[in-house]
Amino acid sequence: METVKIRRELLEYLLELARDFYPNEFAGFLRAKDGVFEEVLIAPDPHFGRSSAFFNTWMLPHDESIKGTVHSHPGPNPRPSGADLHFFSKFGGVHLIIAYPFVEGSVRAYRNDGSELRVEVVE
Ligand SMILES: [Zn+2]
Predict the structure, then answer these.
(1) 19-46+64-118 in CATH: which number?
(2) Any idea where the JAB domain is (predicted)?
């Protein structure tokens, strides 16, 4: 399985965001530096609900350091939904899903075709 690298500070921040937004989803774009995800840009609209369709309405920022997306699932299922896969296929890159209860083990990473990647936390 291929590996995606994420900085520990970012991972912990993402888990915190997922808990704060619960029972709603949060979503954001991920910035990478030298192959490691280091920064998140949060979705500008705080009113999205349980559907991931909101991704489709976003204006994707023109920023070449954006290499992926992240969103939370208010339930324990970390698999991408049909809407998620549709979005992934359009965006490319790497996609993190953080499922309830939002601990390190609830984080999954997927390629744009929905195949899973291993998450490696970098200190
Ligand atoms: Zn989803």
Answers:
(1) 3.40.140.10
(2) 9-111
